Amino acid sequence: MDTFCYVYFRCLIEWPKHEWLQPSMIDSLFILDGLGNVIIEKHWRTVVPRSAVQQFWDLLNAKVSNDTIGENGVRPPTQLIAARPLPSSLVAAQELEPVLVTDRYFFLHILRSGLYFLAVVHDEAPPLSVLHFLHRAVDIMQEYFGIISEITIKENFVIVYELLEELLDYGRPHMIEPNILRSMIPPPSIMATVMNAVSLSGVGTSGMIKYPSGPTSSIPWRSSGIKYTKNEIYFDLVEDLHVILDKSSQVVVADIQGQVLCTCRLSGMPDLMLRLVNGKSLEDGMTSFHPCVRSNRYEKERSISFVPPDGPFTLMTYCTNIAGPQFLPLVVRPQLIATKQGGKLEISVQPRYTSTKAVEALFIAMALPTCIKSVSITSTIGQASFDQISQQIKWSVGKVSPDVSGSGLPLLSATLYGEGSNVEEELSKMHTIFADFQISAVSASGLRIDALHVENEGYKPFKGVRYITRSARYQIRF
Predict the structure, then answer these.
(1) Read out DSSP for 269-287?
(2) Nearest-CA neighbor of 33 among 80, 87, 107?
(3) What is the model's pTM?
């Protein structure tokens, strides 16, 4: 079963290579704002009317109405780390099924940066492939514009339409390599904006697609004739921790989602061989590669052989498990004593790594019940406060040295003052502490980049490697 899931997932990641795995047809694509208004619409096979978008929005509102009403018709309070909660429609969209089926349409959608990217199809299509394409399209737009928002989409709507025209051909994925797209459709710039504004035709230079000229490369993700005065390549191994611990510090969930980001500035057509240290940590997980990687060679030799695209790209992504709580980078020990008038809370933090690497930008947050009206807080390190709007204790610890003997153990002490007859009962319920941090030059999985060999070219490039471990979801429930 594991082998089947691995092969199926690899096929979905590499579906642009295989005609039979491509979606049957994407009829129309819509970009909606947080209120359901259409910002961009693009049609291929048939013109899907906007009444279909309204049908999708009605399903979303129905989900909001059903999921946000609690017992006795009272809406339960939303406890979020952010002091400014998302609108209820956005919260529901994150919980809504990504594929909605009606009598006439299939709605496949994602939510990114407060915008809905909605693909509408008439016939059945592989849903994971369509969702992967939507994420890929948003990533490409993010590379072009930096930040995806309603304003940037409206300011660059001409480029957005040009990208959609090249990304899909008659509803099928066509050109999804960012490097090739950048050579055809230049990213927005101040000069292009001025030329577009003063153009007599009203289209400007950004409305003219520049197709590649001269000899083209047989490799779709890399152009021919690339030259650099200094040949260099950089790797960023970034790992996000998804951890949930119970009150006994036992692991409920402990996963690592990592990615190897690469920035290539190499001349010619180099053929690279990358070797990893502790690659066995990926054997029990799930790994996907950029289409440039020769997957058969990796399965046999556990080495990554590829001809890299020019510029930044994601070489590989992977998901693996953390062996046990002793391998977690941070220990958070909470203690809460509840009384009828309030209670006392203590939170201590200690890094597990015995190396010289410090925990950086540590931030602790804990939501309290609404019966708590005021809190008296002291902390040995950093700044701590109680936000009455979000009902959260927020502790900005900052940098924590692995040697706590010199700087002292970070400790927060708080006295809680409540009102009402059920203060002790509410404080005795389960609570969750959220931790946000980053550790540089550390790989939580133990995966490291060992050596890089270059073939087909006579130079020896400069290689730079960085390791970053950060918390994507680090929770302690007690």
Answers:
(1) --EEEEEEESGGGGTTSEE
(2) 87
(3) 0.72
